[in-house]
Amino acid sequence: MARIKTTKDESRKDVILTAAAESFRERGYKATSMRDLAEKVGIEAASLYNHIDSKSELLIDICFSITSLMNDFMTSVEESDQTSLQKVETILRFQIRQMVDNFDNNFVANREWNHLDEPELSEFRTQRHEYRKRMNHIITKGIADGEIKESINVPATVWLLLHAIYGIESWHRSKVRVDPAVLEENMITILIGGLKK
Amino acid sequence: MARIKTTKDESRKDVILTAAAESFRERGYKATSMRDLAEKVGIEAASLYNHIDSKSELLIDICFSITSLMNDFMTSVEESDQTSLQKVETILRFQIRQMVDNFDNNFVANREWNHLDEPELSEFRTQRHEYRKRMNHIITKGIADGEIKESINVPATVWLLLHAIYGIESWHRSKVRVDPAVLEENMITILIGGLKK
DNA sequence: CCTACCGATCGGTAGG
DNA sequence: CCTACCGATCGGTAGG
After folding, report:
1. Residue A12: is its pLDDT beyond 90?
2. Chain-chain contact of A156 with B178 (C-beta, under 8 angstroms)
3. Nucleotides of C under 7 A from a protein CB
4. Both A121 and A30 in a single domain?
5. CA-to-CA distance for A63 and A77, rounded, in angstroms?
6. How many domains would you assign to chain A?
7. Structural domain containing residue A6
8. How far is the CA of A4 from the C1' of C4 (A)?
9. C1'-nearest nucleotide to the CA of A16
10. A17-52 pLDDT tens trace
11. How far is B53 from chain A (nearest CA, A)?
12. CATH code of the domain containing A14
């Protein structure tokens, strides 16, 4: 029966996924009940199970859609002919725009992934770790090429860059209204300015 | 009866608070049951209620102990005779050290406060907002004094600085082992370097 | 997609 | 500090 579902109306599942991302972002994964979610979609809780197999499936779909988006973009940047510092800037700008345009999904992937069960939990951790290693590699190259300050600690710097961007989560839902373009330029000014030799 | 408790052994409550902070950090507030917590403390769930009134009280205590610590430190910095950029650096260093030394409580205050109920939820939001306004004020002064780049957007910058530091949360529990002192210098190098005119 | 309902688990209380 | 237990709510299923 789970098999039939896939070929049936896929758009209904997308509606559920969108509602789930928003709910998980607002209240957290654990605090969101299937009854909350069903109400948001406009059906009864039991009816959700005609489109999905479980609550955890929703979290899995959200988290891994983000990791695959990030990994694909990283690959395209690695293959480009930009300098290392330009690559860092390109990645930061992409992530900032992602955080602004695809807010709920990114928030959930950044903050609620710890509610994944095994084996997805380990898989998610591995993917994040791989992503950071690729960032490390770019920055290490930038230092070797004399573009980036040699005094920095690479892993700590990757951590700083990534989490500075994750912070946009909270900005987004707050009362502080900053134009996304201004936000992006500001982050680039400070972070790239801080990295540059 | 709630009155007697306060005068009774306060240290037992501290043990519970410490265990709660660690559990809330690891699993999240909602996903931590009073039975989990009791087991960690080494008593039965029902016995917790001889020392506390409710689960929510634990979250309240953790969150507001952090806000009051931050606010007190901010006051001492404001009253000091440092330049604005020095003040920013002093505050960043304090927050970094807090995040390293008092990790569980800071994590919970940064990431789980949204599970507070009213009126504490509004009170917490107000306190955070006030804190950011004080940071805004210092940076605005730094720009006026010609110490800090005039091209930056002040609220977005405060957001960036604060969230770059909150990111230490994840660093702490990860496999990436960076010496706290190196981490601190690295963050200061990039962030203060990025701000400086 | 709904009604009806399940077993499990939750925060918390009574009474000792 | 424990045993025993409460009403509520949870994720999910049966059957239509």
Report:
1. no
2. yes
3. 1-5, 9-15
4. no
5. 22
6. 2
7. 1-53
8. 25
9. C1
10. 999 999 999 999 999 999 999 999 999 899 999 999
11. 21
12. 1.10.10.60
Name, in order, each residue with C-beta under 8 angstroms of B168's C-beta and a sequence gap of 6 or more: A159, A163, B96, B99, B100, B183
Q: Which of A152, A159, A166 sits opposite B189 (nearest CB)?
A: A152
**Are A25 and A96 found together in one domain?**
no
Over residues B24-68, the pLDDT tens digits come to 999 999 999 999 999 999 998 999 999 999 999 999 999 999 999
Structure confidence at residue A166 (pLDDT)? 84
Q: pTM value?
A: 0.88
Which two tokens mark B23? 């559990």
Shared domain for B40 and B72, answered yes or no, is: no
Give the rounded distance of the alpha carbon of B161 from its chain centre.
14
Residue A3's CB is within 10 A of a number of other CB atoms, namely 6
Residues of B within an 8 Å Cβ radius of A: 27-28, 30-31, 111, 114-115, 129, 132, 149, 151-153, 155-157, 159-160, 162-164, 166-168, 170-171, 175-176, 178, 182-183, 186-187, 189-195
Whether residue A105 is found in the same domain as residue A176: yes
Both A40 and A114 in a single domain? no
Residues of chain B in contact with residue A183, where contact means CB-CB under 8 angstroms, are: 153, 156
Q: Coil, strand or helix: which one is A26?
A: helix
Residues B24 and B76 in one domain: no
Q: Is the dihedral angle over the CA atoms B180, B185, B191, B195 positive or is it negative?
A: positive
Structure tokens at B110: 């940064």
Same domain assignment for residues A104 and A188: yes
CA distance B120 to A7: 48
Same domain, A163 and A68: yes
Instruction: Give me the percent of chain B exceeding a pLDDT of 70.
Output: 91
Chain A residues lying within 8 Å of B186, measured CB to CB: 152-153, 156-157, 160
Residue B50: which nucleotide is closest by CA–C1'? D1
Q: Token pair for residue B154?
A: 């002040």
Q: Where among A11, A30, A53 does a domain terminate?
A: A53
